[in-house]
Design a protein that fits this description.
single chain, mainly alpha, 7 helices, Tetraspanin_EC2_sf
Length: 278
């Protein structure tokens, strides 16, 4: 009878209740397990914040590169969507770098309020990048039509005209950089305001169409002297802008994936700290 009672006491939950030392050991084991998971989450967030900070630098660098290196071409575009996308990237990159630093502070302090603020910043940056991605995608779809409608008109009506110095410089840079002449071909210049004016001094094309740029070299439009490119400058500029939009999209997607991981890690650590009685 006593042996059966002892068996009942040491069976199931009765054993844990009847033996205080077993309950304490189980509680200690659970505490150690929770602490180990929390430490792992903290290290994962540290690694994430380092990668996130570097990603912010890349995003900002791509935005600055887009505006500085090829910013002169922006005056040839009908809309400002391309420039807006680049500015959004610069803004998002700056926020990412600041947020990465705040994330490290939040992990060190282990306060729920800091982690909540950090999560909100990640979500805000994610939404900003989403807007930039949508703008880039929409602009990519309408890029070809916009260039066909706007670039030809800009080159034939505004080149070398008073008050249009920035457009003139952009067209010259475009033709020299991409080795092209005219929006579709060199014959487009024959109907331009500049070529038909006395200012052209009997040039057939602007001097920037020449393979070797010298004063008044545009008086000869022979293929040995000027660029004859299939599709003209429209095709070259369209491909250039499309490549830039793809770079912007790829960088945005990469950083967005990092952010999703960071938000998941932040939620898990937030929950662990919430369960921690200390």
């Amino acid at each position: 009878m006593d042996q059966r009672k002892h068996t009942l006491i040491c069976t199931g939950s009765a054993c844990r209740k009847g033996d205080p030392s077993a309950g304490e050991m189980g509680s200690l084991y659970k505490d150690e397990q929770d602490n180990w998971i929390t430490v792992c989450l903290k290290y994962l967030l540290f690694v994430f914040n380092f990668l996130f900070w570097m990603g912010g630098g890349v995003v900002m660098g791509v935005g600055i590169w887009t505006l500085v290196d090829k910013g002169e071409y922006l005056s040839l575009l009908a809309s400002s969507t391309f420039a807006v996308s680049a500015y959004i990237l610069i803004l998002a990159g700056g926020l990412v770098m600041v947020t990465g630093f705040l994330g490290c502070c939040a992990v060190i302090r282990e306060q729920r309020s800091c982690l909540s603020t950090y999560f909100s910043c990640l979500l805000l940056i994610f939404l900003i990048e989403l807007v930039a991605g949508v703008l880039a995608y929409v602009y990519y779809q309408s890029l070809s039509e916009e260039l066909k409608q706007h670039l030809s008109k800009t080159m034939t009506e505004n080149y070398a005209q008073p008050g249009k110095e920035s457009i003139t410089h952009s067209v010259d840079r475009l033709q020299q950089d991409f080795k092209c002449c005219g929006s579709n071909n060199s014959f487009d210049w024959a109907h331009s305001v500049y070529i038909m004016s006395p200012k052209a001094e009997k040039r057939l094309v602007p001097d920037s169409c020449c393979k070797t740029t010298t004063p008044q070299c545009g008086k000869r439009d022979h293929p040995s002297n000027i660029y004859k490119v299939e599709g003209g400058c429209i095709t070259k500029l369209e491909q250039f802008l499309a490549d830039h939009l793809l770079i912007i999209g790829a960088v945005g997607i990469g950083v967005a994936c990092l952010q999703i991981c960071g938000m998941v890690f932040t939620c898990c650590l937030h929950r662990r700290i919430k369960l921690d009685p200390y």
